[in-house]
Amino acid sequence: MTDTPPTLTCANHPTVETGLRCKSCEKPICPKCAVLTPTGYRCKECVRGHQRMFETAEWYDYPLAMAVAGILSFLGSLIIGRLGFLALFVAPIAGVIIGEAVRLVLRRRRARRLFQLTAAAAAVGSLIPILLLLSSLLMGASFMGILFSLLWQSYYTAMVTSTVYYRLGGIQIK
Ligand SMILES: [Zn+2]
Ligand SMILES: [Zn+2]
Known about the structure:
Blueprint: E1 8-9, E2 17-18, E3 34-37, E4 40-43, H1 44-52, H2 61-80, H3 87-106, H4 112-126, H5 128-138, H6 143-173
Antiparallel strand pairs: 1-2, 3-4
Helix pairs in contact: 2-3, 2-4, 2-6, 3-6, 4-6, 5-6
This protein binds zinc ion (2 copies).
């Protein structure tokens, strides 16, 4: 009896022999219990733990990330106003810079809700020149006079908001 090679049995199904081990916790798992992840087979418990890791943001990450995104987006919106059609090229870059700055602040902490709020903060930060432009209408500025400025600023808002969101969301794919 002792000359048979030691066989593993699944940690969840003691009667099922298996050659698989979870890549994270090393416990033997049968094919039914194994979950294929990009880095190998894992047990369901480890996969669940891994998913929980995706929501690691602390409470202070929210005001911090939103402040960084809002302020940088506001500063960018001031610059965009002076660029004219160059805004087409600069707005996506601004979005990347803001996204990277937020990532720097967050290190590797993350939460889906946090990314949404941060993108929203970037949107709000970029709206001030638009509001100023619209209020200049009330003061008698002609609509044609501000049309292009309005166009570039709106483009900037759309670009920055979406780029920041997808930039941050990209953390989750890793
Ligand atoms: Zn495991
Ligand atoms: Zn099993």
